[in-house]
Amino acid sequence: MFTLENDTLAVSILDPENDLDRCGSRYCVGGYIYQVTDRKRGPLLSGPQYPDPFPDVFDGQGAPDMFVAALGADAAPVGGEVGVIGVGRVRRSSPVEPFSVRHNPHVIEFVPWTVEAGPTAITMATGHTFGPWAYRLTRQVELHGRTLLSRTHIQSLGEAPLPIVWFAHPFFPWPAGPEICRFSIPVNLPEQEAARSGYYLDDAGYICRKSDYDWARGCYQALDFRPTGDPLVVEQRHPVLGRVTAETDFPPSFLPIWGNDRTFSFEPYFQTELARHEAATWSIRYQF
């Protein structure tokens, strides 16, 4: 792994050549933040199987991100291939529709990455051509004091429009109390799902955890919200730090949350489509 570090934090980032045993068909390999460690208080991030030292690659840990829209998935037969942005060529081994890497874990070939690493910043870049799609992708992670910035830049180079459906998936340990997180935009739990959900919304606007829910089976919940066009700020309760904040530089197109008995995550989505030679850049910033 690569390490970004200063006097207070150390950030572990997977090596896209030597840590492929920790990578699968789901998360973007370049810029995969695997852990953030406070030099005095220990690890700050979690995961669905944490503290397993080798979690299943689909679950992972830390603060990964992923491109949901697989290239060629609509036409690929079982036994065929799809292109997963930031991962590479993936075997379609399941007939389940719509295509999901959850059911298709086999990576035929990972894309190669170039790496420029320094003590507090790292840049990883790759490119891939798959059928009529092609792209150039750059991932940058920078550590400034107690602020961690994860930035993505992608340019479409193929004949076909490049579909971008991306989300950040940071995993946090559960806070001590029921309050989990609060968003800068008003959110609600869908009324028809509120009774069976593991979450509830309190009067202060915090997403809270129901103590009697069976958390071992996990709980995924898409939140209702009215798009404002504003970036998202998240106040995340934390058992060690009290709170962590996260801020996107884009308005989320979709905002689900997920947790099990070991971890909790919010998932802000960025979505667009790029014609040939068009590019997009977006980022998420964590303050520990």
From TrEMBL:
One of its GO terms (biological process) is carbohydrate metabolic process. Gene3D superfamilies: 2.70.98.10. GO terms for molecular function: carbohydrate binding; catalytic activity. InterPro entries: Gal_mutarotase_sf_dom (IPR011013), GH-type_carb-bd (IPR014718). SUPFAM superfamilies: Galactose mutarotase-like. This is DUF5107 domain-containing protein.
